[in-house]
Write a structure and sequence with these properties.
The chain is mainly α. The protein is built from 11 helices and no strands. α9 runs antiparallel to α11.
């Protein structure tokens, strides 16, 4: 049993769908008291953190949608709202290393597994921009100066992706992302960037795929911001 703490964008198809299945199994253990893996360390660290499990499920769901899969099995747990378990089975840096070994000669995920702080940062920068322009600037500077080790950066970015972005922050990040595909985009009105966030994100996703814009296709924000756009629209 494994619930990853890094972006689902790094998981290949088998791991993504596998985690989704195992998360529902974990929820069943917690809700229905099933014994199964009730003493497994992965289960134990999520006891009392139903809200966080729901958030992780939503992260999986929007990544699945980006890859063409439908999720019709929502998780509705709400206990311990706004809190994530402090216990990690493996650090984020270790999780990347585990996946690199696991995927050797196998299908990769949507986002290439990072081997340097610079690559890791480039994949997360719009997710951070959506949450804090100041942190975006500070982390970018530290990475450029090689002052932030990979392991520390990986842990910092995990915490950033667990925090809710502001509506203004998301619009700022999405407008930057739109700039990469806008020139070649077809049939998108000029007012798109000022309209509903979800419409803008969907347009970015469509154009990133159509234009094979690797910079966006390898961005965590391309998937994870959808869950927050949906929340702001509800």
């Amino acid at each position: 049993m494994r619930i990853w703490d890094i972006s689902p964008g790094y998981l290949n198809r088998q791991s993504l769908l596998g985690e989704h299945r195992e998360l529902h199994g974990l929820v069943s253990i917690l809700v229905n008291g099933k014994k199964g893996y009730s003493k497994h360390p992965e289960t134990l660290r999520w006891v009392g953190f139903g809200w966080a499990l729901r958030q992780r499920h939503q992260c999986l769901s929007v990544e699945m949608a980006l890859r063409g899969y439908k999720d019709n099995t929502p998780v509705t747990l709400t206990d311990n709202a706004q809190q994530w378990p402090e216990v990690l089975i493996d650090s984020p840096a270790q999780q990347y290393a585990l996946l690199i070994e696991k995927y050797r000669d196998k299908e990769p995920g949507r986002i290439p597994l990072p081997t340097s702080a610079q690559q890791l940062w480039s994949q997360h920068k719009y997710s951070v921009l959506a949450r804090s322009p100041q942190q975006y600037s500070d982390i970018g500077r530290a990475v450029a100066n090689k002052a932030l080790p990979f392991a520390d950066l990986a842990l910092t970015l995990m915490h950033h992706l667990r925090a809710a972005p502001t509506a203004g922050g998301m619009r700022n990040a999405l407008q930057h992302m739109w700039g990469y595909v806008a020139k070649l985009a077809a049939h998108h009105p000029a007012e798109l960037t000022e309209g509903p966030l979800l419409n803008l994100l969907h347009a970015i996703q469509q154009e990133a795929k159509a234009q094979q814009c690797e910079y966006l296709l390898h961005s965590t924000a391309l998937g994870e911001l959808k869950m927050w756009c949906l929340a702001s629209a509800s």
